Amino acid sequence: MADLKYECPETVEAAVAMLGADGGMAKVFAGGTDLLVQMESEMIEPTLLIDIKKISETRSVTFEKDHVRIGAAVTGAELGENDKLVAMWPGVVEAVELIGSDQVQGRATIGGNLCNASPAADSVPAMIAAEARATIAGLKGTRETPIEDMLTGPGKTTLGQGEFVTSIILPNPPALSSDAYLRFIPRTEMD
After folding, report:
1. Where are the alpha helices (DSSP H) in the chain?
2. Which of 3, 44, 73, 97 could hold 30 in an S-S bridge, CB 3.0 to 4.6 Å?
3. 67 CB contacts (<8 Å, ≥6 apart)?
4. pLDDT tens over the chain, length 191 residues
5. How far apart are CA 171 and CA 66, in angstroms?
6. For the whole model, what pTM was predicted?
7. Strand, helix or coil at 27?
8. Sign of CA dihedral 129, 166, 16, 49
């Protein structure tokens, strides 16, 4: 860990350049709630940590004509405080609010929960049911992919070298519809 570097770029392009130049040993993070645990347990040993919280598009919730765009670095606590999003997608917000304890909610992000690709990721089934897509930036530009196509196995995604998720896109729900999320397991996040 002595050679670990930290960068906090302010643009997507700068983050992509850092990822592309690092040779695969960089890790992107916003909240770091899973990353720090993985580093502490020596599951991963990155040489560079790229903090995306200063990139404006990763920190905003934007309501557009036919969808809402949620920045990958928006925390669960922030989503729960967004009344318009809660009214539009209550089940997705409920799922994100199950990520960790109340204290963790101030750090844990929807993008991190997706990219960690844990089988226990509460937000992922809700996003799949909502037909969400991920916006991914990389060395070859920007692309979108359905959430269900991004995950390939426990801890594995389709993210390539130099790519990271910048936002989640939720389509506007159909008229007179709603959603809800209920965890069907006999444990809590603190077990």
Report:
1. 12-21, 33-40, 76-80, 83-88, 90-96, 102-105, 110-116, 123-129, 147-150
2. 73
3. 169, 170, 171, 172
4. 558 899 999 999 999 999 988 777 889 988 887 788 888 888 888 889 999 999 999 999 999 999 999 999 999 899 999 999 999 999 999 999 888 777 777 778 899 889 988 888 889 999 999 999 999 999 999 999 999 999 999 989 999 988 999 999 999 998 888 888 887 766 555 54
5. 6
6. 0.89
7. strand
8. negative
- Tell me which long-range contacts 120-126 makes (C-beta under 8 A, separation of at least 24): 122/95, 122/96, 122/98, 122/181, 122/183, 123/92, 123/95, 123/96, 123/98, 123/99, 124/151, 125/95, 125/181, 126/91, 126/92, 126/94, 126/95, 126/96, 126/179, 126/181
Query: What percentage of residues in the chain have a pLDDT greater than 90?
Result: 58
User: Tokens 């963790």 belong to which residue?
Assistant: 104
Residue 61, both tokens: 């919730």
The rounded distance, in Å, linking the Cα atoms of 113 and 124 is 8
Please give the structure tokens belonging to residue 56: 């404006």
